[in-house]
């Protein structure tokens, strides 16, 4: 565990250095003047929304523009992270600027340990530790120490996947509920449990020997119940928004306020590139992307992750295909696919000598181009 924490510290020091360099180059922005300090710089973008929830809570009435459309507001951001910060602030009185990044850092440390324990179920110590290195130095790893909910999500997700991998389905239920209050991952987690349920049904019917069939049959009911809990966790926050505001689509309307268009599953992945490249090129690009994703999931090294991690990656990719609007935040949204880091680590030490420096360079690019703010057109910069 000491080695895991050393990896965590090194990763956060690297990200801190990258953030400090970017802050020194930062010009005037909507959040600060030029060359802000570290504490101000990490409070850019959605950190400001979380701080607003910390100070004000959620609106009882949805804000609307002159034409009646719902405007961006706090309901798009889940309550666990700002609620935890608010609770700790009530005890310590240290304020958002200290408590929020401290919670993110503590959750990031816990996530590193949880990810290592999860990876150890499928690999030896060296390979599991290498997987943690890749997560800690990922191109978007700087987000693990800013006041975002990503590090808290990784902690809960790795914990939940470990419990499911060790067949502790009932114990996973409260973790899944908390996870559903941290980030909108209830739907993909329910999809993953659905895949595992179907896999258990198949094993119960075709397993090699009565012992395997009996074991698979015994997993059906707890998997089904966990799937129900995951599904309920997925709708808890939208239901809360409906209850408080009195508007049934309060959450979805808020989420799509950033898109300025209705939510239509799967379509944005074609519409966005079609607007830039034309329908034919967009279709070919989409086909290439689908083949690449399918090929990735079917590679022996990814399949070696085991049914739980494979099902999570497949379920999360399907969720993104259906509901995510592809844009500059996509790189950050890919972070829950962290089990793929173990697949990369399985290839041995040689690829790591390339992956680690490339990841650090890409982290510099991500922080400088996306976290750092520069004026860009009528809508400002692209969000990280």
What does this structure look like?
The protein is an all-alpha fold. The chain has one domain (2-371). The chain is built from 18 helices and no strands. The chain has helices at 2-25, 38-41, 46-56, 80-92, 96-120, 125-136, 150-165, 169-179, 186-206, 210-245, 250-255, 268-277, 279-298, 300-303, 307-323, 330-333, 339-345, 349-371. α1 (2-25) packs parallel to α18 and α5 (96-120) packs parallel to α7 (150-165). The protein is globular and about 70 Å long.
Q: Which secondary structure elements does this structure contain, and how are they paired or packed?
A:
Layout: H1 2-25, H2 38-41, H3 46-56, H4 80-92, H5 96-120, H6 125-136, H7 150-165, H8 169-179, H9 186-206, H10 210-245, H11 250-255, H12 268-277, H13 279-298, H14 300-303, H15 307-323, H16 330-333, H17 339-345, H18 349-371
Helix pairs in contact: 1-5, 1-6, 1-18, 3-4, 4-5, 5-6, 5-7, 6-17, 7-8, 8-10, 9-10, 9-15, 12-13
Q: What class would the helix/strand composition place it in?
A: mainly alpha
> What is the count of DSSP helices, taking H or I runs of 4+ residues?
18
Helix content: 55-70%
Our Rg estimate from Cα atoms comes to 21 Å
Count of spatially separate domains: 1
Number of extended strands: 0
Q: Give the mean pLDDT.
A: 94
**N-C termini distance:** 31 Å
Which descriptors would you attach to this protein?
384 residues; 69% helix
In short:
The protein has 384 residues and is mostly helical.
